[in-house]
Automatic annotation (TrEMBL), chain A:
Entries under Gene3D superfamilies matching the protein: 3.10.20.30, [2Fe-2S]-binding domain
The name this protein goes by in its record: Carbon-monoxide dehydrogenase small subunit
Record keywords, A-Z: 2Fe-2S, Iron, Iron-sulfur, Metal-binding, Oxidoreductase
Entry annotated with the keyword Cytoplasm: no
Record-level Gene Ontology MF annotations: 2 iron, 2 sulfur cluster binding; anaerobic carbon-monoxide dehydrogenase activity; metal ion binding
Keyword Membrane assigned: no
Automatic annotation (TrEMBL), chain B:
Name listed for the protein in its UniProt record: Carbon-monoxide dehydrogenase large subunit
Top-level division of the source organism's lineage: Bacteria
Keywords assigned by UniProt, alphabetized: Molybdenum, Oxidoreductase
Entries under Gene3D superfamilies matching the protein: Aldehyde oxidase/xanthine dehydrogenase, a/b hammerhead, Aldehyde oxidase/xanthine dehydrogenase, molybdopterin binding domain
InterPro entries listed in its UniProt record: Ald_Oxase/Xan_DH_a/b (IPR000674), Ald_Oxase/Xan_DH_a/b_sf (IPR036856), Ald_Oxase/xanthine_DH-like (IPR016208), AldOxase/xan_DH_MoCoBD1 (IPR008274), AldOxase/xan_DH_MoCoBD2 (IPR046867), AldOxase/xan_DH_Mopterin-bd_sf (IPR037165)
EC numbers: 1.2.7.4
Pfam family, one: Ald_Xan_dh_C
GO MF term list: anaerobic carbon-monoxide dehydrogenase activity; iron ion binding
Domain Aldehyde oxidase/xanthine dehydrogenase a/b hammerhead: 22-127
Length: 158, 781
């Protein structure tokens, strides 16, 4: 039994037939050419597969593709097109990644945090990123990148 | 030196960063292989120790969509880097829970999984051996009865007829006399358990065997050439017909060194023309990614009243798991160095690898040094307190210095040990006591020193090609892996510094064993030093060729030519300035309208020609097994909650003598990253096994690694630079080292906080909270 679903992926309309058992991560990766969402654990524990769905991050390894019917999905591939490269640039400036495998997930979580809470304090930044695991960086550069991003945006708004 | 260098020693954004923050960086799982891609699943042994009586694959083979099934009958070969004791697929016996008994290749992963369920295996279950002390008993069942028949490299000493995979002995001076001279002796045991690398990217391999008998693999690996070599030997395929392509790697830490699961994809030979993909699930990753060896160590140390160490006996029993192949080199390397970074006149070390029915173990960041430093550095604190000397001062008194004799009697390379100790002590404000406003919280500090040498064969080589393009940009072809440590940024800087090509005109290419030159492996923190030296030689080779063609074309003296900003210039003629793009591909037109030169390429290679692994097996003397040591120190400030036992590291300082920081920012990033990884192993990481040998915590819910919440509020990385004479611009490696001081520094801080000496890692909240409540608890003073 298959079902046709539709959603917007990085600004483009998608119509695709999926099985009820297919995970969103697998559909994005294997069928739609998205490589930024990564398989890290398959259980929602590491955050490497994080994508943005209707403005909120989800663990795409936990979600069934049919649940995404009618939604708006953003992944790292869409950031330049969607005008979000500022976050990427500040991560780059801070050398915020080493192996880079967790990078897309962190950037997605950062994007969600800043869109929901433009002025997070240090604890709120850590809470927002605590679901993304990184084994290389010790988190320090990631944290300092997000902090500078917050300061920069505040400076611009005031 | 950085005053005279343009890029070396200066900060820069990593050259791989733009790819990583845009998602452009492709990892093995991201590569497209088209509609013919097949998937492999593995049938894992449910038993830790069992004889295989019969395997029936007939039902699996009949399942629609299954393309092939393979068992040990198809691939009975043993393989291994240091000792060939590992099965591609076992024939008659399984040795750990999770060992791959059969593989199924199918159109989809679901069908391959289903196929595995249809395979019937008859086992005769044997009692598992799960403790090195049981494995070493005289009547212990032999886990490898054929150990004497296995191929082994000459300096690894397996003991046939026992469960011992390797013994490295050091006998320097007279250890008994040293203890007689001592005013104080302390002997005790320490235990460090199995842990896993927990790279966020699990292992993955895609392999294709074509009708010309060409074997191509795409692997997430630290060791493309070593994998090619092992596969060629195991399969009897010429090296030229095996090609390994290594895309970006999502974390290695030693777990992707050598070869492990990649050997299984050899079964693609059964389906020529089809690419076959095997990706470990997270659970399989926990069971099958070569865990860190467990260590049971006995440390006996004697000291004079003045603090000088007189003797050390250090017996290390390593649980190497069901196969030791690569792990034997951990046993070997630690045997040479288990004095810690101190001058000890009388030394006796026994480093012993012991088989058990735990999963196979091998390299993990620090390569055994983290494990033995836990005992040594705990001991240093305990002895210092007992004889009334400040622990930092006690380390200063005994710190190894340049030219001191190490345990195997070679001489210590230039070393900033004292500077590391002093700077770290200063950064952590050693001696300054702090009291919390919360009566349940105790604030305390802990200190540890560290050293490590690259552990590698004496003939481990690196090589580099540099090739110019028409616009004067260069591609640097290496087979050293960028696994996150910043190697390719360092390589680009070496090439840039010598050829004066700006960094934005340099690409460093990820390995393809067909096209990139040989590299032994990206392990041991040797790459900045060794691949760096090869890169410098390649850059100088290209520079020589540039000078040669320019001097021939313009009739200039080679000696007066120099490079600046991507141009050739002449000391004798200030007006002469020839940009690379004018000649590096096409050559230079002469006055006769002919052309000289041609595409410029540089080649460079390096092996450490002074090393020698063939030491006396009874004493460890007579060789030069290590190229050099990198030294350092680490310290923590903790807040310990007496009620809950929770230890929070609020500040850390770590310093290492990297000889020369090629990228100071990235050196600091290594220190921070290695510290946090070490913090996980100090506080809570441990593989938990049941009494049948099955690992119970094979996911990130039950096996915790640090999150951003565990990051200390303050982290102070310290760089010390005493140049390495044979290092590129004076550099030596420092990546793994950053984990080494963490476990003992935290343990020492806990002891300083509440007098609790924990000798059994991890330092969990339960141990910290409950042990002081027991009646027989005597606080350490």
């Amino acid at each position: 039994m298959v079902r046709e679903i539709e959603f917007t992926l990085n600004g483009y309309h998608q119509k695709i037939t999926v099985k009820p058992s297919e995970k969103l991560l697998d559909v994005l990766r294997d069928r739609l050419g998205i490589t930024s969402a990564k398989y890290g654990c398959g259980k929602g524990e590491c955050g490497a597969c994080t994508v943005n769905l209707d403005g909120k991050t989800v663990r795409s390894c936990l979600m069934y593709a049919v649940e995404a019917d009618g939604s708006v999905i953003e992944t790292l591939e869409g950031f330049q097109r969607l005008g979000k490269k500022e976050i990427q640039e500040i991560y780059q400036k801070h050398n915020a990644f080493q192996c880079g495998f967790c990078a897309p997930g962190f950037i997605m979580s950062t994007d969600e945090l800043l869109s929901q809470n433009p002025d997070p304090d240090e604890e709120e930044i850590k809470e927002a990123l605590a679901g993304n695991l990184c084994r290389c960086t010790g988190y320090k550069n990631i944290f300092s990148a997000v902090k500078e991003m917050v300061e920069k945006r505040k400076g611009r708004e005031s | 030196m950085s005053k005279n260098t343009k890029v070396v020693g200066h900060d820069a954004v990593r050259i791989d960063m733009e790819e990583k923050i845009t998602g452009a960086a492709l990892y093995t799982d991201d590569l497209p292989f088209g509609p013919n891609l097949l998937h492999m699943s593995v049938l894992a042994s449910p038993h830790a120790h069992a004889e295989i009586l019969k395997i029936d694959t007939s039902e699996a083979e009949k399942l629609p969509g299954v393309m092939a099934v393979a068992t040990g009958k198809d691939y009975p070969q043993k393989y291994g880097l240091y000792l060939q004791d590992k099965s591609i697929l076992p024939v008659d016996r399984v040795r750990y829970v999770g060992e791959q008994v059969a593989v199924v290749i199918a159109r989809t992963k679901e069908i391959a999984d289903e196929g595995c369920k249809l395979i019937k295996v008859d086992y005769k279950v044997l009692e598992p051996i799960l403790d090195v002390r049981d494995a070493m008993k005289e009547d212990a069942v032999l886990i490898h009865p054929d150990l004497g028949d296995y191929q082994v490299i000459p300096w690894i000493n397996p003991q046939p007829g026992t469960n011992i995979s390797h013994v490295r002995k050091i006998r320097k001076g007279d250890v008994e006399k040293g203890f007689e001279e001592a005013d104080f002796i302390l002997e005790d045991e320490y235990h460090v358990p199995h842990v896993v690398h927990a790279c966020i990217e699990t292992h993955i391999s895609v392999a294709r065997y074509d009708y010309t008998k060409r074997f191509t693999m795409w692997n997430s690996t630290q060791s493309p050439h070593t994998q090619r070599h092992i596969m060629a030997n195991a399969l009897g395929i010429p090296h030229k017909d095996i090609r390994i392509i290594a895309p970006y790697v999502g974390g290695g830490f030693g777990g992707k060194a050598g070869i492990s699961m990649e050997a299984l994809t050899v079964a693609c030979q059964k389906v020529p023309g089809y690419p076959v993909k095997l990706r470990w699930s997270r659970k399989e990753e926990f069971l099958n990614s070569s865990q860190r060896q467990e260590l049971r160590a006995t440390v006996k140390m004697g000291v004079k009243k003045n603090g000088k160490i007189t003797a050390l006996r250090h017996i290390m029993h390593w649980d190497v798991g069901a196969s030791a192949e690569y792990g034997n080199n951990v046993v070997n390397a630690t045997g040479f160095s288990a004095t810690g970074p101190y001058f000890v006149p009388n030394v006796s070390i026994d480093s012993v690898g012991v088989y058990t029915n735990h999963p196979p173990c091998a390299a993990y960041r620090g390569f055994g040094y983290s494990e033995f430093h836990f005992g040594i550095e705990s001991h240093m604190d305990r002895i210092a307190k007992a004889i009334g000397i400040d622990p930092v001062e006690f380390r200063r008194i005994n710190a190894i210095k340049t030219d001191d004799e190490v345990a195997y009697k070679c001489h210590m390379n230039p070393s900033g040990m004292l500077e590391c100790i002093d700077k770290v002590a200063e950064a952590i404000e050693w001696g300054k006591e702090e009291v919390s406003d919360d009566p349940d919280i105790v604030i305390a500090k802990g200190f540890a020193s560290a050293w490590k040498a690259p552990a590698m064969p004496p003939n481990a080589g690196s090589s580099v090609f540099i090739k110019f393009s028409e616009d004067g940009s260069i591609n640097v072809l290496v087979s050293g892996m960028e696994i996150g440590q910043g190697l390719h940024t360092a390589v680009a800087k070496f090439a840039s510094e010598i050829l004066t090509v700006p960094l934005d005109k340099i690409r460093v290419e990820l390995p393809d064993t067909d096209r990139n030159p040989y590299e032994w492996q990206t392990v041991a923190s040797h790459e900045t030093w060794e691949l760096g030296n090869a890169t410098i030689r390649a850059a100088r080779d290209a520079r020589d060729k540039i000078f040669d063609v320019v001097s021939r074309a313009f009739h200039l003296e080679k000696e007066s030519l120099y490079l600046e900003d991507g141009k050739v210039k002449d000391d004798l003629d200030p007006d002469f300035s020839l940009p690379f793009e004018d000649f590096v591909i096409t050559g230079i037109q002469t006055e006769f309208n002919t052309w000289v030169g041609g595409p410029i390429m540089g080649i460079g290679s390096f092996i450490p020609e002074f090393t020698n692994a063939m030491v006396d097996p009874d004493t460890g003397m007579g060789g030069h097994p290590n190229v050099h040591y990198t030294v350092g120190a680490g310290a923590v400030k903790i807040e310990l909650n007496k009620k809950t036992g929770v230890v929070r590291v609020v500040k850390m300082a770590e310093g290492f003598d990297c000889g020369k920081a090629i990228n100071p920012d990235l050196v600091k990033d290594q220190i921070v990253g290695g510290f946090i990884q070490g913090l996980g192993t100090a506080l809570y990481e441990v593989c938990i096994f049941d009494d049948k040998g099955k690992m119970l915590n094979t996911n990130f819910t039950d096996y915790k690694i640090p999150t951003i919440l565990e990051m200390p509020d303050e982290m102070i990385p310290v760089i010390v630079e005493v140049p390495q004479p044979d290092g590129p611009f004076g550099a030596r490696g420092m990546s793994e080292h950053t984990m080494i001081p963490v476990m003992p520094a935290v343990a020492n801080a806990i002891a300083n906080a509440i007098g609790l000496r924990i000798k059994d890692i991890p330092l969990t909240a339960e141990k910290v909270a409950l042990r002081p409540l027991q009646k027989d608890f005597v606080p350490e003073k």
